[in-house]
Structures are given as C-alpha cells and as structure tokens.
Amino acid sequence: MIYLDYQATTPLDPAVRTAMAPWWDEKFGNPHSPHRMGREAAAAVDVARAHAACWCLGNGRLSFTSGATEALNWAIKGTAGPIVTLATEHAAILDSVVAVGRAGRSVTILPVGRDGLVDLDVARAAITPGVGLVTAMLVNNEIGVIQPIAELVDMAHAAGALFLCDAVQGYGRVTIPPACDMIAMSAHKIHGPKGIGGLWMREGLSIEPLIHGGGQDAAGRSGTLSPALCVGFGSAAQAMLDNEYHDDRLIEKLWPRLADPLLADGWTINGSVEQRWRGNLNVRKPGLDAARLISELRELAVSAGSACASGSGRPSHVLKAIGLSEAEARSSIRLGFGRFTTEAEIDMAVSMILDATIRQRKWA
After folding, report:
1. Predicted local confidence at residue 308, as pLDDT
2. Is residue 296 located within the same domain as residue 183?
3. Torsion of the alpha carbons at 210, 177, 242 and 248, rounded to the nearest 10
4. What was the pLDDT predicted at 361?
5. Phi-psi category of 271—alpha, beta or left, where left has phi over 0 and alpha has psi -120 to 50?
6. Is the pTM value of this prediction over 0.85?
7. Three state DSSP letters for 46-74
8. 8 Å CB contact between 32 and 216
C-alpha cells in the first residue's frame, strides 16, 4: 500500500514507538500520584510538555488534551464574546461556533476567495471592538493553503479580542506567529500517537474548563494523563525539530514529482499555488468521479477531503467555500506526503492515478 493521506494521519515514527514503550509496561504509574512511580511519570510528562510546546513561541503553557478536537472545543467554549472565523475551518471549529451560537453568542463566518485565502479587508471590517475571539487555521487540512495568521492576530488584538490558531496541519512545518493567544495541536499529525493533542495558552490567560473533575493538568484540565501518550507527543515534536531540514528538503523534491505530471494531464490545483504547504496537493480533473477513483485504487491510500467528514457523502465544505461547483468538488482528490514517502512511491502513485483516470474516461 502506498500511503498518500498524511493530512488524515501520519505514520508513527519508530523512534516515537520506542520512547513510548516503557510507559505502557513497567513504568505504568499514575502521573498524579505522590509515590516514586507517580513522580517518575510526572517528570516524564513535564519533559514531554516542554518538547511539545517548543514550536509555540512566546511565554505560555501547554495543556495536554485528548486531541485537537477537544482543544478547539475548549478554546471556543471556554471564552466569551462574539466570534469571528472562516468558512474553510475544520468541523471542530465550525460545529463548535454553531453550538455556542445557539446558546446566544454572536458568530461571524468570513468567506474566502477562489484561492482559499481570506480577504484581509473583509476580515478587518468584521474584527471590531467587542469581538471576543478570532480563530483561523494556519494550514488548511483539505487544500493546504496558509492563511495570513500574523495579520489576523494583529487585527484581533487591536480590537481587544483573543486569537486561537488551529495549528494542527502546520505545527512543526510552518512558523506559528508568536502573538497567538491559544494554539491547538495534535500528535498524530506529526508522526506521533493518536489520542493526544494539546492547547497552548499564553502566560496569564485563563479560560473556563471544558471537562470538570480533578483539575489535574495545566489550566485546570481534568482527567488522568497517559504518560505513554504524552511521551509519544513530546518525542514526535522533538523528532520534527531534529528532522526539520530533511523533511523540508524532501517535500520540495516530491512536490514537482507529483504535481507536474498531473498538471500536464489536465488536472487543476485547488486553492492557492503559491501560499500553501507543499506537502498537500488537492487537485481536480473535469468529469472525474473521485469516489470511484479512490475505490478502484486499492493499493493507494488517498482521500477526497477531510477524514472527519468522509462518511457524510456530502461534497467538501472547503471546496464549496472556494467556489467550486458540486461536480468540481466531487472530481477532486487530496494527496498528502511526508517524512516516510519515497520518490519511487510518488512515481508509482502518479502512474496508478493516470491509468485509473484513463480507464474511467474509457468506460464513462
């Protein structure tokens, strides 16, 4: 199986698996217990916390969560005041703002252009004094475009609002503007384990808890932490730092190897070509049935959009937000690659996609 669905999840780094192993077995202590095993686990969690927070610039503290979905829900539901966000955000953002909107908070969802980017003049007109929270994704999970987060942060702060950055896809790959007030992240997007993420909050910021109980972790987040998962997250974050140069070089080498032959065959890139993370290639082909293509390519793992919405049967809300018709959205596929992708796999994937496209056109 050739795996090109890195936006859905990434392969676990073998070094991360090794780092986690003792904490599943002999070092099984509760990190919130006062005895030696508990203190040893707590120390490992604190080291992992420092490693996981290393990509967040500025003074702040990271609270471990069950994943980015919890982190985003917490940041939204733990704050107050009107919210401004973008139409291309992850469902964890959009569904959460709908939920708090039903409870009485004012919500403004800004459109994006054909390139997937927000118009800063439109944003400036919406982010005015009285707004409590502005939230936007650093790198879009479906089309890979990089939003102008630094400018949006400045607008939020000028209006007296907090800024939440969904950094899940950009964490460790794209610089996170240092002025963000809250940053959500997920371990399994950076070659770490599933089931753990984090919400980083700048120093002095306090928000209402989402989960009530013992208040064991930073910022009052309740629930017993898993040392194994925390260590896995920290190890994955450290590996991102250690492999930064290699990963960046690899992405720059693989992008044209994948994109160029598809573009030559008449495929079109969805979203900005210039302002994007190049480990994500979202493309469409006129007349293509993407769902059928994916079904036929049994030895190639690609997707038609977010894994979170893959079972809905509806076209991607992100592709609709950038102005694609339903037919165009249904003719789009997303290809994601990274640290463990080889050039040979890219070449084989291109050949498989082009051959399947010819077969589909022949039997249409």
Report:
1. 52
2. no
3. 120
4. 84
5. left
6. yes
7. HHHHHHHHHHCCCCEEEEEECCHHHHHHH
8. yes
CA distance 236 to 364: 45
Contacts of 161 (CB under 8 A, 6+ apart): 81, 84, 127, 131, 132, 133, 134
Q: Report the distance separating Cα 139 and Cα 190, nearest Å.
A: 14
Q: 169 and 208: one domain?
A: yes
Q: Based on the domain organization, do 343 and 219 belong to the same domain?
A: no
Q: Catalytic site residue 308? A: yes
Q: Using the 3D structure, point to which of 242, 262, 296 is the last residue of a domain.
A: 242
d(CA 156, CA 179): 10
Whole-angstrom Cα distance, residue 48 to residue 237? 9
Domain shared by 225 and 339, yes or no: no
Q: Residue written as tokens 């730092």?
A: 241
Per-residue model confidence as pLDDT tens digits over 71-120: 999 999 999 999 999 999 999 999 999 999 999 999 999 999 999 999 99
User: Of 198, 203, 222, 159, nearest to 68 (Cα)?
Assistant: 198
What range does the domain containing 249 cover?
2-9+244-362
Express each pLDDT in 195-252 by its tens digit. 999 999 999 999 999 999 988 887 889 999 999 999 999 999 999 999 999 999 999 9
Amino acid at 189: K
Indicate which residue of 56, 165, 230, 308 is catalytic: 308
The domain tally of the chain equals 2
* Cβ 250 vs Cβ 339: under 8 Å: yes
Residues 92 and 161 in one domain: yes
Give the model confidence (pLDDT) of 137-165 as tens digits: 999 999 999 999 999 999 999 999 999 99
Tokens of 270: 């969805």
**pLDDT at site 340:** 98
Same domain, 302 and 191: no
- Tokens 């917490």 belong to 74
